[in-house]
Amino acid sequence: MKSVFFFFVLIAVSPTFAQYSINDKELVRTTFAREFDKAIIQKYLDSGSNEKINAALLSISHSEDTSFIPSIVKLDDEHLEFIAFAIGQLGENHLSENFLLSKLNQKNSEQLNFSLMSELGKIISPDKFDSLINNYSGSFGSGISLLISNYHLRGLKYDRKKSAFILSDELSGTDQQKFKALCCAFRTNLCEYIKDDIISTLNGTSSFLDLESIETTKRDILVYSLACLRRLKFFPDDEKLFQSTLSTPHYPVIIEAIKSAVYKNNFSVTDFLVYIKLLHNENLNVAMQSAVSLKEINIKEDVSSFILEELFSRSLDKRILGELSLTFYQLYPNIFFRKWEKIKTLLYAEHILDVYNLLGPAYFKTDSLLKSYSSASGMIKIKILELLLNGKNNSTGSTAKFMIDVLNSSFAAGISIVADGIDSTFIDRYKNELKHIIINQTNEYVHNSGYIESLMSLANLALKISKEFEAEILELLLNSDLYSVRKFAESKLQIKFSGGKEMNYFENIWNNSFKFLSAIITTEKGSFEIEFMPQYAPVSVGSFCYLAQLNFFKGINFHRVVPGFVPTCDNMKKE
Questions:
Q1: Where are the domains of the chain?
Q2: Is 8 helix (H, G, I), strand (E, B) or coil?
Q3: What is the mean pLDDT of residues 130-158?
Q4: Is the dihedral of CA 89, 92, 95, 98 positive or negative?
């Protein structure tokens, strides 16, 4: 387990560009409680203070209450980005749609138009969207890629060819327009219509691949150009581009290059030898990704001997060996079977289980897996469960009893996996026993924050038994102390969400919201700093700082940090 330590930096947060501040306790309280007191919010909207008005708009964005819209669209345009954000979060509304359309203008800054287009995509009606796409001439300014992307996410139909034509036009614009267009093409799978434009954009930016330092937007253009090619399963037959993308010092670019370069036309042995060197890259993530992506190569020559040499060289990290063994099986299954017993001795248990998942039940003994389960680590337990659930005979004998025992255990992940994974045959055969377990487990963990996903999985399993039984379980969940569990139950029952977060910890959270500027995280791999932004997310920041001081995170495996994300918890009760 990796060691993680938190050090808090006691430096005052600069009020520059702040929205929420230390003086906004009552506004944050009513937002946290999901009450959205209109008297408090209106007072902020009428204050004449830029910071207070923006803070009110951030609170409104959480409310799901469209009755705020007539008030906020009357605010001064200097708040336009915050108004647009709130409108986008509140959902489809005719007044909101017309308001945002009226604000689109070539005279706007590029950033403002990006914001307006992005939020408009979340709420625009199909008729207005079609009209805008059919008559688009660039007169609204930049950002239409964001509108198309967010409209697509709503699952609505639209003219894909015309939308792709617009993206092609955007690829001749500014670097920001290019980046947004490539993101949109990737997310909407419109890459196929603009393949040549994507290649041209990649070639036009490739001169930056060898530089030690690169502007963020140009780096992102490279990343998403390569991502679009990966989606197309295509890479140009260009040796210079192939080698420069795979040797770039820029981590996000080389990761995407590894994923896309395997689709190079006429992939040769020389190309393979260049690619396989990445298995020895000093960055473990780069090395592992190369082992994973290698299985996608389409090469005429037999390169199995090179892969075997790497597998048996004992120079690779075991995690890389695990991924490479899976790749070897998928490329050369016959040779793999002949070498399996030797390969198996080189792998961690989790990778052996991954291989078993590919090979099938003929290659492992179920009884051995069942016996090893109780003493296994959490990760290995998960792998064993997934392996057994993938088998055809999990609803009879010792395997069925094992599944029932796991469902009735205190292992939260196991409860979720079994509840989600057992099939209709299993459910029909053990219906009464399952009902008894679901009721008991729901009552046992209904207030426990460590079992949120388990409770939801149990409710979903209840539905597979009967609609009436699901309703019975959801009624139990309505009484949970956990906000997200109550919200889940009310959504399933199609009743208006009552909100009402527990306020017991609000004072502790608030007292920590603006107390620290950042946290320094020290692990066995090095240190990094998380910057706090309480001006936008005081509750998330306060929760994190409060819990860290309680050693809440002690003993939790460090996994990764997502940029722009602050860990928080739904409930502070550590059982």
A1: 1-25+501-575, 34-158, 395-492
A2: strand
A3: 90
A4: positive
